[in-house]
Amino acid sequence: MSTLASLPEGYRAAVIGATGAIGGALVQALQADARCGGVHAFSRRSAPALDLLDEASIATAAAHLREQLPGPGGLHLLVCATGVLQLGPRSPEKRLADLAPETLARAMALNAIGPALVLKHFCELLPLKERALVAVLSARVGSIGDNRKGGWYAYRASKAALNQFLHTAAIEVARKRPLAVLAALHPGTVQSGLSAPIIGDAEATTPPVAAANLLRVLNGLQPTDSGGFFAWDGTAIAW
Ligand SMILES: NC(=O)c1ccc[n+]([C@@H]2O[C@H](COP(=O)([O-])OP(=O)(O)OC[C@H]3O[C@@H](n4cnc5c(N)ncnc54)[C@H](OP(=O)(O)O)[C@@H]3O)[C@@H](O)[C@H]2O)c1
Fold first, then answer.
1. Is 82 near ligand 1, meaning CB less than 6 Å away?
2. Which branch of life, at top level (predicted)?
């Protein structure tokens, strides 16, 4: 059975960050779903290219997708699977002395503002009266309530900002699209270029398993869950 059984037959999906480990696995999982009517994969290498640091490229990608969809409001699933952990020479930071303004600004631009601009341009493509699912990949370390170890200032703060953008967008999107569900998702520790320098011997999920987990969580979310922050197993994470 399709993992996304809650979406209509022939649903269309878009994945931003399709070159990433988790983004690529999401594209493969959606391509393998017989009920999926098409997966549109965007990255800095797609045509058109989408660069989070260039709003015009995000707008162009959304306009391109609009032309590919069967009609207005034809996008039922959007996942922004982009993200960067190592952003500068002392990143991720261990202590206050490691903070560098350029690194902090870059983290905000890539991990928070870029995905917010993706929501700005792509949420317009969601249906008005049908179920739709939107996820941004966040990280548990973006939780302020769960932060007991400190460190990783830029990544933590940019993911916390991403969560706030997502939550705020969910409130606005619900006004016109009451069946849409927007969520910030923590994929767990996953084998990828992003995690490789920091996981050491820690247990890490493979990208295909992580993708399946994320789609399962999304499938189970209801409009009352919209704007929330959830882990790979469906449990809610403290802000
Ligand atoms: N892996 C983990 O253990 C883990 C844990 C918690 C949260 N996460 C989150 O999960 C998400 C996916 O991570 P991942 O592990 O799959 O990492 P990844 O393999 O390094 O993928 C990161 C993706 O972000 C894209 N990206 C970076 N800068 C970009 C830009 N300027 N414009 C457009 N795309 C850009 C990369 O594109 P290029 O190929 O062009 O560089 C790539 O597609 C991230 O948000 C990460 O924070 C991961």
1. yes
2. Bacteria
Q: Does ligand 1 lie within 6 Å of residue 127's CB atom? A: no
Domain total of the chain: 1
The answer to whether residue 157 sits within a structural domain is yes
- For residue 96, give the DSSP letter: G
Residue 159 lies in a domain: yes
Q: Does the Cβ of 65 fall within 6 Å of ligand 1?
A: no
Domain span holding position 79: 11-231
Centre of ligand 1 to C-alpha 138, Å, is 10
| Any domain includes 27 | yes
Residue 52, Ramachandran bin (φ over 0: left; ψ between -120 and 50: alpha; else beta): alpha
Output the tens digit of pLDDT for each of the chain's 239 residues.
578 999 999 999 999 999 999 999 999 999 999 999 999 999 999 999 999 999 999 999 999 999 999 989 999 999 999 999 999 889 899 999 999 999 999 999 999 999 999 999 999 999 999 999 999 999 999 999 999 999 999 999 999 999 999 999 999 999 999 999 999 999 999 999 999 998 888 899 999 999 999 999 999 999 999 999 999 999 999 99
Q: What is the 3-state secondary structure (H, E, C) of 196-226?
A: HHHHCCCCCECHHHHHHHHHHHHHHCCHHHC
The set of residues, in sequence order, having a beta carbon less than 8 Å from that of 144 and lying 6+ positions away, is: 160, 238, 239
Check if 81 has its Cβ closer than 6 Å to any atom of ligand 1: yes
**Given ligand 1 and candidates 16, 118, 190, 205, which is best to mutate, with the most ligand atoms within 8 Å of its CB?**
190
Which ligand 1 atom minimizes the distance to the CA of 190?
3
Q: What is the CATH number of the domain that holds 194?
A: 3.40.50.720
Which residue has its alpha carbon closest to ligand 1 atom 7?
139
Contact between 107 and 154 under an 8 Å Cβ cutoff? The reply is yes
